[in-house]
Amino acid sequence: SDAGSQKERVVTEEEWIQKWEMGNIGFHKEQGHPLLQKYLDVLLNGRSGLRIFFPLCGKAVEMKWLADMGHSVVGVEVSEQAVKEFFSEHSLPYCEEPVPEISGAKMFQSTSGNISLYCCSIYDLSSSIVGKFDGVWDRGALVAVNPRDRQRYVSLMISLMEKNSSYLLVTVSYDPNKHKGPPFYVPESEIKSLFG
Fold first, then answer.
1. Domain around 151
2. pLDDT tens digits, one per residue of 156-193
3. Residue 27 lies in a domain
4. Burial of 46 by CB count in 10 Å (0-12 exposed, 13-18 middle, 19+ buried)?
5. Exposure of 26 by Cβ count < 10 A (0-12 exposed, 13-18 middle, 19+ buried)?
6. What is the spatial distance between Cα 186 and Cα 177, in angstroms, rounded to a whole number?
7. How many domains does the chain have?
């Protein structure tokens, strides 16, 4: 059950953009993820008006769902197509502006201001650009980053978290010798060592 066969696997940002262009997005859930509904109380912890981060957000329907509850949502996604599809599929007007700190990056914000999606590499973000978050919904992000980048990814996530924030993480369990990923297999022991 070690993830040896996946350690060297690299999926480029171009390949992710291509997946969106080809409609090869089996990871997208039209109805939202049942685990977010199940563990929503853990994420919110009785709090309202939270800032919630969606790493590698795609066009996750949960972003609108949480924004409609009064939370402010920030996502990051490398595919501009995914971001634009999110706004159009929810009939949400938005504006688009460059992100001065990140060359080539754009920020798409709903006119209501409660959903901001950054179109760039997640590794270009920092708390000085996006601030810190009360909650993170990581559904398909940790398992999508290249195995060699996990430590870098988790360090970034930790730097974006407020002191008392909640982090909901969904992983997948399978025999990594039978599937090359993504999604990648991340053993529980590695999750514990990554997040501490």
1. 13-20+33-195
2. 999 999 999 999 999 998 988 888 899 999 999 999 99
3. no
4. exposed
5. exposed
6. 13
7. 1
Any domain includes 179: yes
The CATH number given to whatever domain includes residue 138 is 3.40.50.150
Answering whether pTM is above 0.90, one says yes
- Name the binding residues: 16-27, 56, 77, 121-122, 139
The amino acid at residue 42 is V
**Residue 7 is assigned to a structural domain of this protein:** no
| 122-147 residue pLDDT tens | 999 999 999 999 999 999 999 999 99
Listed residue (62, 20, 57) closest to 37, CA to CA: 62
Q: Is residue 65 part of a domain?
A: yes
31: amino acid identity, one letter = Q
| Ordered alpha helix ranges (H), the chain | 13-22, 34-38, 40-44, 62-68, 80-89, 127-130, 150-159, 188-195
For the segment 83-125, what is each residue's pLDDT rounded down to a tens digit?
A: 999 999 999 999 999 999 999 999 999 999 999 999 999 999 9
Q: Which residues are annotated as a binding site for S-adenosyl-L-methionine?
A: 16-27, 56, 77, 121-122, 139
Are 134 and 66 in contact by the 8 Å Cβ rule? The answer is: no
